[in-house]
């Protein structure tokens, strides 16, 4: 074999999701349906925010960026998984595996920071409404988005630079349907204990810390609202419930996958599917079905598209 980075491994073997033909057909149509839903749902939100001037506010600009990230995160794994369903030998090249891992963590790290920015936006809107437009100015909104992407890239690079130079000379079975740092590191021909700890700290502990920080911040917002007016508590909780649902859907699988990176095969697969398939397809529904202004804007955009097509 040709050597890649001083190793003899030029490709990796991915794990299949099913063996029987019936289950493969079912998963093919299920994943294809979900991926189409992810593309249409998230792009619809992006275009609605872009073309509707009523939605040119920080909350909706952040939401549009979240939709783009969800689409990108899902696209790192789902198309490959769909194409591999009917393949008996699921091979991914060394370079493709490295690229997949890199972009998974760019998107994941960016979404993590963006969810913090969205929590800050809701805190400002609910707890400091009179100063909202001053604090969450368009400039501040764009700065938060840029910071989110920069931190996402740093998060990915800080792990990628170590993994890309590891020697791979033995087993090449990843043990999952996609490549990720914890599993690929295990295949290196050297002691990787310290590097595994770096990955767990970088992805696992940061995910856990961010999750609890966000939940505590939402609780703080609700407590603050209750102190000022108990009548506004239900309205604030209704607004925040969508954010809390998205945070739980995104962070809980991350915590299990990286803090406890080798659960049972079935649990590992389920958690990965939640992060890459279920969360990106549910986020548009969660934010649109629970947001009257977004629903009105979407109906307005749909009417304009239909009328222009006549």
Global mean pLDDT: 86
Order of helices and strands: EHHHEHHHHHHHH
Estimated structural class? mainly alpha
Question: Sheet with the most strands?
Answer: 2 strands, antiparallel
- Tell me roughly what share of residues is in helical segments: over 70%
The low-pLDDT segments are 1-7
- The share of residues in extended strands comes to under 5%
Helix tally?
11
Count every beta strand, where a strand is a DSSP E run of 2 or more residues. 2
Overall shape:
globular
Radius of gyration, in Å, reads 21 Å
Trace the largest sheet across and list its strands: 1-2
Span between N and C termini? 59 Å
Features:
310 residues, mainly alpha, two-stranded antiparallel sheet, globular, disordered N terminus
Q: How would you characterize the overall build of this protein?
A:
With 310 residues, this protein is an all-alpha fold. Helix content is 75%, strand content 2%. The chain has a two-stranded antiparallel ribbon with strand order 1-2. Residues 1-7 have low confidence and may be disordered. The protein has eleven helices and two strands. It has helices at 21-51, 58-75, 78-84, 94-127, 132-135, 138-163, 181-185, 193-228, 233-259, 265-289, 292-309; strands at 11-13, 91-93.
